[in-house]
Design a protein that fits this description.
The complex is a heterodimer of chains A (294) and B (356). Chain A contains eleven helices and four strands, in the order H-H-H-H-E-E-E-H-H-H-H-E-H-H-H. Chain A has 294 residues and is mainly α. In chain A, a hairpin with a 2-residue loop joins strand 2 (131-134) and strand 3 (137-140). In chain A, helix 3 packs across helix 8 (187-211) and helix 10 packs antiparallel against helix 11 (264-280). The relative contact order of chain A is 0.20. Chain B is an all-alpha fold and 356 residues long. Chain B has a domain at 33-249. In chain B, the strands form two sheets. In chain B, strands 1-2 form a two-stranded antiparallel sheet. Chain B has a two-stranded antiparallel sheet with strand order 3-4. In chain B, helix 2 packs parallel to helix 8 (174-192), helix 2 (33-57) runs antiparallel to helix 13 (270-287) and helix 8 crosses helix 9 (194-204). Classes of the chains: A mainly alpha (294), B mainly alpha (356). At the A-B interface, helix 4, helix 9 and helix 11 of A face helix 6, helix 12 and helix 14 of B.
Chain lengths: 294, 356
């Protein structure tokens, strides 16, 4: 019992962080599934979402600024796709990846310029930043809300992908680009749709993630971004349930390691896990086997 | 022009460049920004060429350069701090465990060798991966190395998350130029050797290269180790330049910067990487500085100009290059006297024909 009461806060924090990583990881995994591109800018889009809320909440009430944040993030995701990735659609995959790194560099510098390099206080969102007691542990309500919301959103997304026309189009584009185009699917629209969904979920993730922190700095999205990516690879990149499960595993493990007093290694652990999975099972837990034809 | 003549002309040009730098160093005040740009630029060009060897010539998309630079920087700093300064540097760790120090060149060599040794170890599992997976795995390793060097248990050696300082550094510009020049020359020799041709074959088509009898695993490992060796030396030089180091400096953002330099210069062009490094450093440290200062023209206050704007403009320029000039400054060509002659003949030779 003593063991549980000691570790329960870490476990709860792990589940909560895992849910937030899951929301980011879906953006990575969907884009990779369709474009075969590691969207390095995704973590920075996550940061920008937080900054939009910080600035908009100073001039308008929260019930307006939260929807504005969601919309602005989606628009940013769309613009990045149209400006930085679309012109390179027929270029080698590495050029697109370099372009993604360039976008990430640009967004970070832009955030640095706007914030002046100072940490910005994140507004307290009512209800979810109140504290509650679960058994022996005291935590914020967001800890409980996150996994529930994550599961609801993922469920809705799975319905969208498996049971609607646009979902069917997405699956077909992920499977074969050229044939889908021949079948009359507007590939560019489908890709934009993917970025819309990914950015929207990243914005929701950012609302939940930064509620646990007092402030935002321009680089605070980089680490969660990378970890979410690792989660996507761990679960098998291209697979949504895989990304969610991977994210929960990483979130929980990371916080348990922190609980054991190895905080320095909580980041390193994530990457060690990545390397182990890449060596043992490069396709991840649920990834499909890709074969190279000569 | 014969090959020999070409080499002689290039060597003469390099000597002339060295002479110009020495004169500049004597004429300019020691704190002039141009000297800073020259020092940092040549260190970055060494690291950029080492990354180009891997990404541009062998086609292995690795993002671990900052990690190897970190190893090099720490190896150099740890080994060369003078014995009597150790007590004050390692004040939280009772003076540290290493109670000797080595000369500067031995330190630089050690930083390269240690980085290469790490690369060999990391390469065993990682080099089996391809394209994006390789990129992510090497990025992950760089992060692990960073966490590892901050670990308290290693404190007596690495000073934990505290700064390392008081090791010998350089003040003249000639020193980094000579070291980087020699290192880049060695890499050029490697690229022109039979190993270099094997690297290019692997880049162009792995399967065809394997069918031609090239040992893929061996050559990939070799390229990885050579590249890391020179990244390590570059890290050591960077430590000397900064005169104090901390593992926080070597984040993945540093790798991204170097990768962008390589892309701007052109993947697969050594001279391109060098030119791009100097341009990159000059722009970010010197030429675009005016964008960071609030300026007034008469009563009109120029909008947007304040701290940080330089970096925004700079990254927009980089994005433009990545999107619209995908081959970079040099593409995969090299800067040479022959090339310039041909270029001018093409431009001005045609005009003569028109006149006739």
């Amino acid at each position: 019992m003593d063991f549980i009461s000691k570790n329960l806060p870490y476990l709860l924090a792990g589940i909560s962080v895992g849910g937030q990583y899951a929301l980011i990881a879906i953006g990575y995994t969907m884009v990779y599934g369709i474009l075969r591109l590691i969207n390095f800018a995704h973590g920075d889009i996550f940061t920008v979402a937080a900054l939009v809320l910080v600035y908009s909440s100073t001039i308008m009430p929260l019930y307006l600024s939260i929807p504005l944040t969601l919309v602005a993030t989606v628009v940013l995701g769309l613009v990045v796709e149209r400006v930085a990735y679309k012109p390179l659609r027929n270029a080698p995959r590495m050029s697109v990846m370099i372009s993604a790194i360039g976008v990430s560099y640009l967004l970070q510098n832009l955030a640095l310029y706007i914030t002046g390099g100072l940490a910005q206080t994140y507004p307290a969102i009512p209800i979810i930043s109140n504290t509650i007691k679960i058994g022996p542990a005291t935590t914020k309500i967001v800890t409980v809300v996150t996994p529930v919301l994550t599961i609801v959103l993922v469920f809705a997304l799975m319905q969208l992908i498996n049971h609607t026309k646009i979902g069917m189009a997405m699956r077909s584009v992920a499977n074969d680009f050229e044939t889908s185009r021949l079948m009359g699917i507007k590939v560019d629209n489908i890709i934009s749709m993917t970025f819309v969904i990914g950015s929207f979920l990243a914005a929701v993730g950012s609302l939940l993630y930064f509620t646990n922190y007092a402030s935002v700095v321009p680089t605070s999205g980089a680490m969660p971004g990378l970890k979410a990516f690792v989660a996507a690879v761990f679960g098998g990149i291209g697979s949504i349930p895989g990304a969610v499960i991977g994210a929960f595993i990483i979130g929980i493990c990371e916080n348990i390691i922190k609980g054991l007093g190895w905080t320095t290694f909580s980041d390193a652990f994530t990457f060690a896990l990545l390397i182990v999975i890449l060596i043992v099972k490069p396709t991840g837990l649920f990834g499909e086997k890709a074969t190279d034809k000569v | 022009m014969g090959k020999k003549k070409n080499i002689i002309i290039s060597a003469l040009l390099l000597l002339a460049l060295l002479a110009v730098i020495m004169i500049l160093e004597q004429r300019l005040p020691a704190t002039h920004i141009a000297l800073t740009v020259l020092k940092k630029g040549c260190i970055y060009s060494l690291v950029a060429v080492s990354m180009n060897l891997l990404n541009g010539f062998t086609g292995l998309f690795s993002l671990g350069q900052a990690g190897f630079m970190l190893i090099g920087a720490y190896a150099y700093a740890v080994l060369t701090i003078p014995v009597d300064a150790r007590a004050s540097v390692y004040q939280y760790f009772h003076g540290g465990v290493i109670q000797f120090s080595v000369p500067v060149f031995a330190g630089l060599l050690a930083s390269g060798i240690l980085a290469a040794a790490f690369a060999w170890l990391i390469g065993l599992p990682v080099l089996r991966l391809k394209s994006d997976y390789l990129a992510i795995a090497t990025l992950g390793f760089a992060e692990i190395i960073r966490a590892f060097f901050q670990w308290d248990v290693l404190g007596p050696i690495t000073n934990g998350s505290n700064m390392l300082r008081k090791y010998p550094s350089f003040t003249s510009v000639t020193f980094p130029f000579l070291v980087c020049g020699v290192c880049i020359a060695v890499m050029v020799l490697v690229i022109h050797s039979s190993y270099g041709r094997a690297f290019k074959a692997i880049r162009d088509d792995e399967i065809a290269a394997e069918a031609m009898g090239i040992n893929l695993a061996k050559h990939k490992r070799m390229a990885f180790c050579i590249s890391s060796f020179f990244a390590g030396v570059g890290g050591g030089l960077l430590a000397m330049y900064q005169s104090s180091i901390q593992s926080q400096t070597f984040k993945s953002a540093m790798t991204y910067e170097i990768l962008l330099i390589v892309v701007i210069g052109g993947l697969g062009s050594v001279t391109g990487s060098c030119i791009a490094s100097f341009l990159f450093i000059a722009c970010s440290e010197w030429w675009l500085r005016f964008l960071d200062v609030e300026t007034k023209i008469g009563d009109f206050k120029v909008p947007f100009l304040r701290a940080g704007f330089r970096k925004v403009v700079f990254s927009v320029i980089i994005m433009a290059i990545v999107l619209f000039a995908r081959k970079g400054i040099m593409g995969s060509r090299e800067f040479s006297v022959d090339g310039i002659c041909k270029f001018f003949k093409k431009r001005f030779g045609r005009k003569k024909e028109v006149k006739l």
